Write a sequence for this structure.
């Protein structure tokens, strides 16, 4: 029985069923077989915080298996060799993946290509030579990329970039520092955003360009890994660029107009985070429901107590609302709408609802909810981080209010 009154296209549902079967075979089974590697941080990461070589091999294997099965590039444009499905498919598949896999089976992150680490519409703007040199391996999941926009002084206000690309013969020299670059420790390429016209950039009239840079380029140095929430390793890095040479074929999109690429990527990231939040929230809620019906106290299941059942009912209401918002905004985007306000509302609401849902699931389990074994605290950490990824809740609220006061009051 579905709680949604309108039908998801049958083709998308069939793909979602197939993706679920793939996750059971290639993700969950892989975690069971290599549990001590993938779920013991002492083995997952090296002493410097980077993923171990064995871990990287496992996530690469999932990417490649998914690409071969036809799932990895499902939302990449057809002109890149992808399936060309839109945002509705992207949302539905991601929500299903995270609802099934939860937090422990984290290799599921690599089943569907994310805009910032693999094939997506962003790569439609690379040059013919770049396509020839990098596209085949990236589409096959053999390699991945990352997205270098954020800087120590430029986070939510990305227009405050300090990184510069100065003309040098037939190319440019890039100098600057990037932070919060996801997957930089394992990526073969990074799309770097740099100021190429300081005057235009100061007036926020362009002046920022994007470049495709191999991570083994001379002058590029991943200085350190950013470890968060008490973890001993991570996938976020701080990277220094010292006169990194790039040529004209490495330009992504139009010169001085790279910021548009960044905005598009962030918008796709908001769909991703909304779907992931709802999926993890549903996974957490279902765990809490199962536990509450089995755990007894004072002679009856704890589900009989309002102090337990009412918070879970609130979670169900909020998750249902977030789910509907996500499907709605995905359909709006697929129909050609910009949906700026709606996308901002969806992402902000979904990630906040997910934090509340995972927290309630932890509370329902009591002390067991805090154990590593259940993975609920890991789910909480992931959705909590999503509250600042691809636009903080405060930035999204600012966007929503600006749209409202410009007359966009359709609700």
């Amino acid at each position: 029985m579905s709680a949604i009154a309108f039908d998801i296209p049958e083709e998308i549902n069939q793909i979602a069923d197939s993706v679920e079967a793939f996750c059971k075979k290639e993700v969950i089974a892989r975690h069971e077989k290599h549990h001590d590697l993938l779920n013991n941080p002492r083995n997952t990461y090296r002493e410097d915080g980077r993923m171990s070589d064995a871990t990287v091999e496992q996530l690469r294997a999932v990417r490649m298996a998914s690409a071969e099965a036809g799932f990895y590039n499902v939302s990449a444009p057809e002109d890149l060799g992808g399936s060309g499905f839109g945002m509705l498919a992207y949302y539905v598949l991601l929500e299903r993946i995270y609802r099934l896999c939860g937090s422990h089976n984290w290799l599921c992150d690599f089943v569907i290509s994310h805009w910032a680490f693999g094939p997506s519409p962003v790569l439609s703007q690379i040059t013919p030579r770049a396509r020839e040199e990098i596209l085949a391996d990236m589409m096959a999941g053999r390699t991945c990329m990352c997205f270098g926009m954020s800087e120590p002084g430029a986070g939510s206000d990305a227009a405050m970039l300090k990184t510069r690309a100065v003309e040098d013969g037939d190319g440019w020299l890039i100098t600057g520092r990037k932070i919060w670059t996801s997957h930089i420790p394992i990526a073969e390429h990074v799309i770097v955003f740099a100021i190429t016209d300081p005057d235009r950039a100061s007036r926020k009239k362009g002046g920022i360009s994007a470049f495709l840079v191999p991570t083994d380029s001379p002058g590029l140095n991943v200085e350190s890994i950013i470890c968060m929430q008490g973890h001993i390793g991570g996938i976020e890095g701080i990277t220094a660029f010292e006169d990194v040479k790039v040529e004209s074929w490495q330009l992504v999109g139009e010169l001085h107009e790279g910021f548009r690429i960044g905005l598009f990527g962030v918008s796709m990231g908001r769909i991703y985070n909304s779907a992931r939040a709802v999926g993890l929230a549903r996974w957490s809620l279902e765990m809490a429901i199962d536990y509450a019906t089995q755990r007894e106290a004072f002679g009856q299941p704890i589900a009989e107590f309002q102090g337990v059942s009412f918070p879970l009912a609130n979670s169900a209401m909020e998750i249902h609302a977030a789910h509907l918002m996500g499907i709605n905004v995905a359909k709006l985007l697929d129909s050609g709408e910009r949906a700026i306000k709606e996308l901002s509302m969806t992402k902000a609401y979904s990630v906040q609802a997910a934090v509340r849902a995972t927290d309630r699931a932890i509370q329902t389990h009591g002390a067991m909810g805090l154990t590593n074994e259940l993975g609920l605290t890991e789910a909480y950490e992931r959705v909590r981080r999503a509250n600042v990824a691809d636009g903080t809740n405060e930035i999204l609220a600012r966007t929503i209010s600006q749209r409202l006061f410009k007359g966009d009051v359709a609700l």
Notes: Residues 259-294 form the longest helix (36 residues).
